[in-house]
Amino acid sequence: MEGVVQVCGTDVAFEAIKANGSVVTWGDADAGGDSSAVAPLLTECVVQVCVSAGAFAAIKANGSVVIWGIAEYGGDSSEVAPLLMEGVVHVCRTARAFAATKANGSVVTLGEASEGGDSSAVATLLAECGVQVCVSARVFAAIKANGGVVTWGNAEYGGDSSAVAPLLTECVVQVCGTAEAFAAIRANGSVVTWGNAEYGGDSSVVASLLTEGVVRVFVSAGAFAATMANGSVVTWGDAEYGGDS
């Protein structure tokens, strides 16, 4: 195979984008290795491919998205197909769902409902999301243009942010996630966390250090590390994943 510019894979299949914008797939047929059903749409102009654990989503130069793979992993876009024909600028994924951000600021979701594929409960809040969509393993978190945060997906993994909702209505500048929790940096340099406590959703042990001066937050699968304006680093989460420094 020649002329390949990108390769990515589901758990059991691969795709390769070639320099001419075409896509080649191989591996487990059900999980995206067989793209014959959408092959005519993958012959040119593909600019990005995003993967879940069992499906692929290809963005084309015209802003349309081509989906294939296991339906329960986001591989069936039939219910939202008209919304994916144009205007898509970015696609991100949880393990079993996709979220496509459009040029008008709206978000389209598909895949396993409990892992972010169904955003109907927050649809009105996502009509003009605007800025950025972040993920944990089973949850999406969208930062809106006003700095508010909207979450959906598995409640225990951060899909339910109601406990910290008053702190997420505005002024959030960054959100990042471990496998099962999120951390949001606010404009005043403070940090808000939610999700599975063991994976960093509970930062109470270091809360006094996260009220101001946080510059950026980094993640492992189960812990967070915040760099501070004074050059120090604050960590929390599962010790085996780096949460105890």
CATH topology of the largest domain: Methylamine Dehydrogenase, Chain H
Largest sheet: 3 strands, antiparallel
Low-confidence stretches: none
Please state roughly what percent of the residues sit in beta strands, choosing from under 5%, 5-15%, 15-25%, 25-35%, 35-45% or over 45%: 35-45%
Please give a handful of descriptors for the protein shown.
245 residues, mainly beta, Methylamine Dehydrogenase, Chain H, 3-stranded antiparallel sheet, 1 helix, 2% helix, globular
Please tell me about this protein's structure.
- The chain has 245 residues and is mainly beta.
- It has two domains: 1-118, Regulator of chromosome condensation 1/beta-lactamase-inhibitor protein II (Methylamine Dehydrogenase, Chain H, 7 Propeller), CATH 2.130.10.30; 129-245, Methylamine Dehydrogenase, Chain H (7 Propeller), CATH 2.130.10.30.
- The chain has one helix and 18 strands.
- It has one helix spanning 29-33, and strands spanning 4-9, 13-18, 23-27, 46-51, 55-60, 65-69, 88-93, 97-102, 107-111, 130-135, 139-144, 149-153, 172-177, 181-186, 191-195, 214-219, 223-228, 233-237.
- The strands form six sheets. The chain has a three-stranded antiparallel β-sheet with strand order 1-2-3. Strands 4-5-6 form a three-stranded antiparallel β-sheet. A three-stranded antiparallel β-sheet has the order 7-8-9, with no helix packed on it.
- A hairpin with a 3-residue loop joins strand 7 (88-93) and strand 8.
- The radius of gyration is 19 Å and the shape is globular.
- The model has no long low-confidence stretch (mean pLDDT 95).
